[in-house]
Amino acid sequence: MLHQIQETAAFLKKVFPHPMPETAIILGTGLGELVNHIDITKEIAYEDIPHFPVSTVEGHSGKLIFGSLGRKGIVAMQGRFHFYEGYDMKQVTFPVRVMKELGIKHLFVSNAAGGMNPDFAVGDLMIIRDHINLFPEHPLRGRNFEELGVRFPDMSEVYSKRLIGKAVQIAAAHDIVVRQGVYVGTQGPTFETPAEYRYFRIIGGDAVGMSTVPEVIVARHGGMEVFAISVITDLGVEGIVEKASHEEVQKAAAAAQPKMSLIMKELIEQF
Description:
Blueprint: H1 2-15, E1 23-27, E2 39-45, E3 63-69, E4 72-78, H2 89-92, H3 94-102, E5 106-115, E6 125-133, H4 161-173, E7 178-185, H5 194-202, E8 207-209, H6 213-221, E9 225-235, H7 246-270
Helix pairs in contact: 1-3, 4-7
């Protein structure tokens, strides 16, 4: 695996022969508007990158973008990989491993999630302050390479309190209501049953989704500072569990894009 990571990073350094940015963004389902604010220098399809998986999910474009957001150089993943697509965790998190090899120090992640907190509504933004990992395979399982991180990484502050504080200030300045909460990561691809929503709420979750946790674990393993935010696209609140579909999730995510993009853009430019 280490050889593949190094080989992919070397390829990208040739494709983008400029000083490599220290900031990366993973854009999730329906949350691609931020790309319209990026001054793109170079973009490359995942299928053209050695050892990269290719996204199979509708709404995930599958491109790696190099450019700048304001005055900040960035690398952006337009489309991500999911465990439910059939990839193992090494494949799901491979791009984050490559980011570390490229010198990325800060990772920003967005996703769509189902809300269990009764105070939440569809379209709300939730800054992730912690997570619960319920994926059946751990991304760090197997041989550990010291070049990638320590064998037993600390997880006491997965999500940067510094960046959370700045994001809250930005949202307040623009009169955008943001929630904070715990994200439960599950394998999918089914949406949750009412009993599962209830269980996830009982164990401390505020929202649930099928991504983010693997990438974030690997990012922290590699020493990156992480910020993540969810748009609540459906509700699993006891008594008002709504039917969910991928189309409805995309619609709700698209409606929340302007708020999400504004917060992410200013946060990345300012931090």
